[in-house]
Amino acid sequence: MNTHTSQKGSVKGWVIAVVVIVVLLAIYFVGRNSFQTQLTNCCHGEQYAVTIMIPADLDAYRTAEVAHVQEGTPLPSSIQFIATSSIPNTLSSDPLRNAAEAAAEYIPTQAGTSSLVVYFKVVNGTAYVVLSMDIDGWAGVSAAIAQVHPIVEKTLLAQPGITAVKFGPAPGDTIQEIMGKSAASSQATSTTTKVLSPNGGEVIDVSKGITVSFIGTKGAEYSINISDDSTDHAYNLDSLITFNSQPYKAHITATGLSQTFTVNAQGLSKFNLNPGSMYRIELCTPGPSDLICDYSDGEFTITN
Asked: Which residues of 122-158 are buried (b: 16+ CB within 10 A; e: fewer)?
């Protein structure tokens, strides 16, 4: 064999081998980078994902909840909840609060789609939750609360260590403290809508009527309701109000300072208020685009 030809063939073989190795390495690194990019794009934010419990049939759930609020129709026992993964729009360092936030965001409402949990605390296995819609409502907020609360509750009860869920501040806390407000600062401004009393924890003898204190924006007209949180029903009290010692059958006009009125006991009897229920006073006035409302910070009970 010709030695020169043999050497040429050997060099050519080495060149081919080197080219193959270079191509293979290029394919490896391109593929590796592509995989990492796909992994980043695919799973970005997964570390913030939480498990929430949602209705298996959302349309049926919403229909049932709205009928329950508006018509008093009993909720069907067949409503099923399933687990799904979600990333809340507003994140905190507390995974449990993130779960509550993601659950509250699941059904769109007028409260928006972020920062819905304004207060969250766990005490001895009980999660205390306050949503923005609980303290800053709008016309029809009771229907939104009826749909959102059960999803938040089911979600939290599915979390390790949570045995009960209550919508309201934990013992020792108040809404004023949570929101950085106080009754004094409320009375110092004429642009605030605030129920001052009853404001939670009272036991009221409705055979003597209900005395309500509030502060409202000066000149604004307010409608007054009593809301049964146990059944998500609200009853308008405008025609039952005694104001300035006179029957007051229209909306109350606010002075910008603390005002007090009494809800007529005889008129209350027509609502068949239940001593076993939890109640709040609801105060609403028309705003630029929707009702501006405030509610008793906590629930009160009644006796007959």
From this structure: beeeebbbbbbbbbbbbeebbbbbbbbbbbbbbbbee
For 255, half-sphere exposure in the C-beta direction (CA atoms, 13 angstrom radius) is 9
At 145, the pLDDT band (50, 70, 90 cuts) reads confident
Same domain, 129 and 154: yes
Across the chain, what does the average pLDDT equal?
75
With contact defined as beta carbons under 8 Å apart, do 249 and 239 qualify?
yes
Radius of gyration of the chain (CA): 30
Q: Which residue has the higher pLDDT, 216 or 41?
A: 216
- The contacts of residue 232 (CB under 8 Å, 6+ apart) are 68, 69, 142, 143, 145, 146
pLDDT, tens only, 235-273: 777 666 655 555 545 567 777 676 777 777 766 777 778
> Running DSSP on this structure, what letter comes out for residue 207?
G
**210, part of any domain:** yes
pLDDT of amino acid 160 = 93
Residue ranges making up the domain that contains 107: 49-167
What's the distance, CA 159 to chain centroid? 17
**Within-domain flag for 129:** yes
Number of domains in the chain: 2
